[in-house]
Input
Amino acid sequence: MSELLTHEEYKSLGASLDFPQNPFIDGKYQVGSGEPITTRNPSTGKEITNITTASDGDIDLAVGKAREAFDQGRWCRLHPSERKDILIKLCKLLTRNKKELAVMESLESGKPIRDCVQIDLPETIHTIKWHAELIDKIYDQTTPSGDNALSFITREPIGVAAAILPWNFPLLMLAWKIGPALAAGCSVIVKPAEQTSLTALRVAELATEAGVPRGVLQVLPGTGPAVGEKLGRHKDIDMVSFTGSTETGRLFLKYSSESNLKKVVLECGGKNPAVVFNDAENLDLVAEHIVNGAFWNMGENCSAISRLIVHKEIKSDLLKKILERLRDWKTGDPLDPQNHLGALIDSEHCKKVASYLTEGAVVGGQIEGCFVTPTIYETTVDNKQAKEEIFGPILSVLEVQTNEEAISLANNTEYGLSASIFSANARNALRAARELRAGTVTVNSYGEGDITTPFGGYKQSGFGGRDNGIHAHDQYCEIKTIWIDLTDPASQDKIE
Output
């Protein structure tokens, strides 16, 4: 933790920040005419700042400016290397301002400052840099069209894209969207979660400083009904990339069908299993992955491990080791770098998570304000704790008699975002990885892959595309075929 400051230093830095308060439209902050929203510190409930939001008129203005920038080619017609250079400059500015951004994110989201500094900021910068470096390395194709024709398959930026963000990873989810979208040449309008608008606004300001032309990256704070739905229904938006709940994701499909059939990409909820076979070895390491997967970011993670499906022969030993690991996980003030767990996002979400807290917890089960201690229940498949996405630090433990039963139970869900399998037998592990119906399956570990691997889900966890990797670019592009006839007109039959 040598790179971390002290608790007092972070509090002092937080008190000195100048917070953005208005939508970012056409290269500058502009006072929004929508209903103001108050950004609060989840750990204290105290007001951070008030933000003016985007009205219908502000939305139309932003979309019009985005379309103007795209049609005029201010960004999309730049040479790929020019776009790359500007995005690399943005990464340098993010690095220069990383302390400010980390504290801002911690204050508005309740995330532990240690995670903001050591994970979120580095990954945010890495994501944008990776997509920037990819710009001039994605090649178009030709097809075997014979001697009489020549064909090209090209990617073209889709146009004006809307990115609808969740509140659990304000900076990283922003990077997941704008990295490939800007690299592809799109104009992007970001609608951050109403609880966490500050960092997105600040990044847009830094992007303009880096050289991103006006109108190309804009941020419209506001509620889902007031801004998100309007973007989803807007007939001059070409696509929407959404990360959030499955319930809300469905609405964007509806908005698209009732407007201009804009492209929609959804990354939604999960009820992710960790399956531990009876041949799993090094249970200390397994326990480490389970604790990290279940409780990191207070369980406010769509790919969090929320179901531990474990063979009866090793359940007791594994639970003991999990409890030992949890002793080091402290809950408290997010700005204290000693704490692993901060506050849940707001009082409404706290009420939802609290509804899953019952008697009989193996550990935890306490809530104070917006702080919930890591909680584990031994339960059954029919219990709502084991069926529903909680989005909090609650882990359900399900005992099985056979490895086959474990896989069947893991797949018994409407979700299919991620899964983990633990086994010392490579054949068993690989077979299980193939049988698990999830977009990402990790073997003897917990994770989401990295920036090079696509991320998204099966079933009700995803729709229409993937974040990360080269595949992320496809959601922001149209595929065009250009067919050139090479036949000699002089050789064609002539009409006498």
Q: What stands out?
A: The first strand starts at residue 24 and ends at 25. The domain at 272-443 is CATH 3.40.309.10 (Aldehyde Dehydrogenase; Chain A, domain 2).
